[in-house]
Design a protein that fits this description.
The complex is a heterodimer of chains A (about 375) and B (about 325). Chain A is mostly helical and about 375 residues long. Chain A folds into 2 domains: about 1-55, no CATH class; about 90-100 and about 160-370, MetI-like (MetI-like fold), CATH 1.10.3720.10. Chain A is about 70% helix and about 0% strand. Chain A has helices at about 1-5, 15-25, 30-55, 75-80, 90-100, 105-125, 130-150, 165-190, 195-210, 215-230, 240-265, 265-275, 280-295, 295-310, 320-330, 340-370. In chain A, helix 5 packs across helix 15 (about 320-330). The longest helix of chain A is centred in the last third of the chain and has 30 residues, at about 340-370. The two termini of chain A are about 50 Å apart. Chain B is α/β, with parallel strands linked by helices. Chain B folds into 2 domains: about 1-120 and about 220-325, D-Maltodextrin-Binding Protein, domain 2, CATH 3.40.190.10; about 120-210, D-Maltodextrin-Binding Protein, domain 2 (3-Layer(aba) Sandwich). Chain B has helices at about 1-15, 20-30, 55-65, 85-90, 105-110, 150-160, 175-180, 195-200, 230-250, 255-260, 265-270, 275-280, 285-295, 300-305; strands at about 30-35, 45, 50, 75, 95-100, 110-115, 120, 120-125, 140-145, 165-170, 190, 210, 220-225. In chain B, strands 1, 4, 5, 6, 7 and 13 form a 6-stranded mixed beta sheet that branches. In chain B, strands 10-9-11-8-12 form a 5-stranded mixed beta sheet, sandwiched between helices. The longest helix of chain B has 19 residues, at about 230-250. Chain B is globular. Mean pLDDT of chain B is about 90; it is low at about 15. Classes of the chains: A mainly alpha (about 375), B alpha/beta (about 325). The interface between A and B is large, with 41 and 41 residues.
Chain lengths: ~375, ~325
């Protein structure tokens, strides 16, 4: 009896680490071959990149123990056999990368804005936050606070946007573009599907025009032509003009993404809402849009990430974003030739933000179970 | 594109044809000066965020002339494409953005070049291991060349004139040219001489590269203002000239105070001790004294930003005074 009751363990080959390895990495001979090849590549690559970025790299001092103030003092330039990356350039220029040319005495305002941005995003990102309602109120007024905080006014000294730069500009462009484009995109998407021919035609025209031209063209349009349309004496800020262009661009794309979501909603949902006597706006707000946006999350995040990276194009109209500051640094005779370090750093910062966005969208998808087939069944 | 730009320029000019730029600048309290987004030696932010370079000094000199204060300037970054609309629309008061003076820009775009603060020209850079000492020895070489630029046309002309052949390796950007040359995919890289110098300075071992003596095109780079505002044009022109004249007269930022008691009439006129030249320009009488005191003469600015002691190592060459074998020449100060 005892022997009968004894539970037999599953075969070693299917459980634990060995089982996982067998199923995932060495399932058949092609699979094994690819695994071995990848391991070989990683073996070649990882020690080299670790050595270059960390082990033999200079952070603040070179191998002689001197503090690095120009590229000639980097270990790898003093002795090509010795030393990897020269991160001192990032260390010395860190302020510029994060704040641009923002005056040092006023920089607490930018820091405060960064912290407030985190608090404003919190209730949006995390639905179970205690007192979420009050946090949301703060989120709504945050753009106004941020405007006065960064730009000046209400007792703060004015800091012209010409002095903004680096990550500050990247975040301002990215956040404003994404945040403003969302409601505009929804309106455009609804407008394009509207039964009223004038509205639907205007929305279609707008979307097709904006989508039909590259962002660079729109940036030039904002930079060069927008001021010509304004009455004389009204001086529109350069950054605002770029923001207008970026927002228009992003809202056209957002509109199409959301329209995709709207088209996936079965007609039965519309009919059901209407049969309950709901008006057009109530139907859209309460029934259609929540479902449509839910299934559009992956493409919404996709275009948002795209926009965040596209903000680097503002360099061509002379605004120094994170990448622009990097290029400016490369043009300083003290730091000529450190392009690997600077581009590596800039890509790392962009990666952190875009990867964060993509992870968050995955979390949302799991939470809202967007994969479920919502139908009239 | 060019036609469109000139239309913009004309329209913008019609909109912005106001009283006078000098008055606008004085009322605003600071100068708005258009510079590059970053070009080694000409304009680039330093570690503390201050703009430095030959062009940045030009901007500061004008700010000093107007306000007597080198910090009264706001640098507006412009790119090769956005610089002209930015100036035409009045967003900047002047451009000092190593811009080549050409007839179409001067006439058709409605701008006025007020002088030349750097004489550049297209040159060639080769590995010193190639053992070439003149561009005429480059028969059969592979040349890295930026497509769609005047450098491409100049190159074709030069090789045809000398009856030698080359193979072009088309590239898009300066960075690409640098990488291709350093990797040995081309034997020669050709672009403006100042650009070659910064490329060379960025190499891990600059001594392995040599810039050949031939300069095959004229690229006079200088500050420019909007057409039609001659008073403002004069202020910018004479701010540049004052720096050149100061070098001619041997006045530097260090000895300028001693020079105010000089017995040379032109020195006294320049420094505002005699005459009322400042008043003519509607500036204070010591404007040139202040430029020299706060910025230095042309030579000081050159040596500090692009000269042989900087990583760029650009010899004075054409940019030496006319008395010293160059072509730098300013009209007399009287």
């Amino acid at each position: 009896m005892n022997e009968m009751n004894e539970v037999r363990k599953p075969p070693v080959a299917t459980t634990g680490i060995i089982g996982w390895l067998r199923i995932n990495l060495f399932f058949n001979w092609t699979n094994s071959l690819i695994t071995l090849f990848v391991i070989y590549c990683l073996y070649q690559f990882i020690p080299w990149i670790l050595d270059w970025t960390i082990i033999s790299a200079d952070f603040k001092y070179n191998y002689l123990g001197e503090q690095i103030t120009n590229q000639e003092m980097c270990s790898r330039n003093l002795d090509p056999e010795n030393g990897g990356a020269c991160w001192a350039v990032i260390y010395v220029r860190f302020y510029q990368f994060i704040y641009g040319f923002y005056p040092k005495v006023e920089v607490w305002r930018v820091n405060l804005a960064y912290v407030m941005l985190a608090f404003a995003l919190l209730p949006l990102l995390y639905a179970k936050l205690p007192y979420r309602k009050y946090f949301l109120y703060f989120t709504y007024i945050f753009p106004v606070i941020a405007y006065f905080l960064l730009n000046g006014g209400l007792g703060f000294t004015e800091v012209s946007t010409n002095k903004w730069g680096g990550l500050l500009v990247t975040l301002v462009l990215g956040c404003t573009g994404i945040a403003l484009a969302f409601p505009i995109g929804i309106m455009l998407a609804l407008g394009r599907r509207s039964k009223l021919p004038v509205i639907s035609m205007m929305c279609t025209l707008f979307i097709e025009f904006i989508r039909g031209v590259p962002l660079i063209t729109l940036l030039f349009f904002g930079m060069v032509m927008l001021p010509l349309f304004l009455p004389e004496g009204i001086d529109m800020d350069g950054l605002v003009r770029v923001l207008v262009a970026v927002t228009l661009f992003q809202s056209a794309y957002m509109a199409e993404v959301i329209r995709g979501g709207l088209q996936a909603i079965p007609p039965g949902q519309y009919e059901a809402a209407k049969s309950l006597g709901m008006s057009y706006w109530r139907m859209n707000l309460l029934i259609i849009l929540p479902q449509a946006i839910r299934i559009s999350i992956p493409p919404i995040v996709n275009t948002s990430i795209g926009l965040f990276k596209d903000t680097t194009l503002v360099i061509i109209v002379g605004i120094l974003d994170l990448l622009g500051i990097g290029r400016g640094t490369l043009a300083d005779t003290n730091w000529l030739g450190l392009s690997y370090e600077i581009y590596f750093f800039v890509s790392l910062v962009f990666f952190i933000f875009t990867f964060g966005m993509s992870r968050y969208s995955l979390y949302l998808e799991k939470k809202l179970k967007t994969g479920i087939n919502m139908g009239a069944d | 594109m060019k036609k469109l730009l000139s239309i913009f320029a004309v329209v913008a000019f019609a909109f912005s044809a106001h009283a006078g730029t000098l008055d606008d600048v004085k009322n605003r309290g600071f100068l708005k000066c258009g510079v590059t987004t970053g070009l080694a030696g000409f304009a680039a932010p330093d570690d503390s965020g201050e703009w430095a370079g030959l062009d940045a000094d030009m901007c500061r000199a004008v700010a000093v002339a107007v306000f007597g204060d080198r910090s009264k300037v706001e640098f507006i970054t412009t790119t090769g494409k956005s610089r002209f609309p930015t100036l035409a629309s009045g967003e900047v008061d002047m451009l000092a953005r190593n811009t080549t003076w050409t007839i179409s820009r001067d006439v058709n775009l409605g701008f006025e070049f007020v002088g030349v603060n750097f004489y550049d020209g297209q040159g060639f850079m080769v590995p010193s291991a190639l053992g070439v000492s003149s561009a005429t020895e480059l028969d059969g070489a592979t040349v890295c060349i930026q497509t769609g630029t005047t450098t491409e046309l100049n190159l074709a002309d030069f090789f045809r004139l000398n009856g030698i052949s080359y193979e072009a390796l088309p590239i898009e950007t300066n960075d690409e040219g640098k990488e291709n040359l350093f990797a040995g995919r081309c034997d020669v890289y050709t672009t403006d001489a100042s650009g070659l110098s910064s490329t060379r300075a960025a190499a891990s071992n600059p001594d392995k590269w040599v810039v050949l003596p031939e300069i095959i095109s004229k690229e006079p780079l200088g500050p420019l203002v909007r057409h039609g505002d001659h008073q403002w044009g004069d202020v910018v022109r004479w701010s540049l000239n004052a720096m050149i004249i100061a070098e001619e007269l041997g006045i530097t930022s260090e000895n300028v105070d001693a020079q105010t008691s000089s017995n040379v009439p032109e020195v006294l006129r320049l420094l505002g001790v005699e005459g009322n030249y400042g008043e003519m320009l509607e500036l204070s009488n010591d404007w040139a004294y202040q430029i020299i005191k706060q910025i230095g003469n042309y030579s000081e600015s050159y040596e500090a930003n692009v000269g042989p002691d900087t990583p760029l190592e650009i010899a004075r060459g054409l940019n030496a005074l006319w008395t010293q074998g160059g072509i730098l020449y300013a009209p007399p100060f009287r």
